[in-house]
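Hi L., both proteins are below.
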Amino acid sequence: MQKIIALGAGVVLTLAPVVAFAQSAQPPSSAPSAAAIPDDTINKAGAALHDVAQVKQKYLGQMEQASPAQKQTLSAQANAEAVQAIQSHGLSVQQYASVIRTAQNDPQVKQRLLSAADRGQ
């Protein structure tokens, strides 16, 4: 679980350009409360977090050895794969980012999310 936690912290950074775009495309809204996030959404976000962490791990070594131009290409590929991983679980990037933001501020949601990510649903 510690590995998922560590990777999960970097997931938001990996998706920063995607999340920034998603946020600019929608009006700002407050993060949902723990009770407002259904278990199904948490399970989908946890499974997506698991997959996105795997994408991040896949590209991490390549990024360390890449030239600046290669890093840009690899970053774009990683973001595209991460978006695909999120969407394959039936979530939009906006929904995923909302759950991640809520988990960062709510220990109960964080625990539910990390448990779902550990299951790798």
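That was the first. Here is the second:
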Amino acid sequence: MAATKRPIRKTAKTGKTAKAANAANAAKASAWKLRLYVAGQSPKSLRAIRNLQVLCDQHLKGQYQIEVIDLLENPHMARGDQIVAIPTLVIKLPHAVQKIIGDLSNTDRVLIGLALQPLDR
């Protein structure tokens, strides 16, 4: 069975030609690769998806790609990233792989995990 992935891609709009804009947007979109593991449509999973989308829209300005993996549909996907709790956000790029567990409602914690905010703020 093929993995079900629901990518959410955001790119910044520029005044460039379509071909140049697509190339520039592809480079920007790949700046942050985030993978969010959830369990179906539970309230906590939906909150995590919504919170991540808001954080990315506010702080990463179109330079990210979110991949949502529903472990109820694809439980085998948890093995690769060693997922033991859900929801879990796995930060693939631009830094070393990191994980943040929970519904991502603690904005400061998530921003620190994304290295967008210093620890001693």
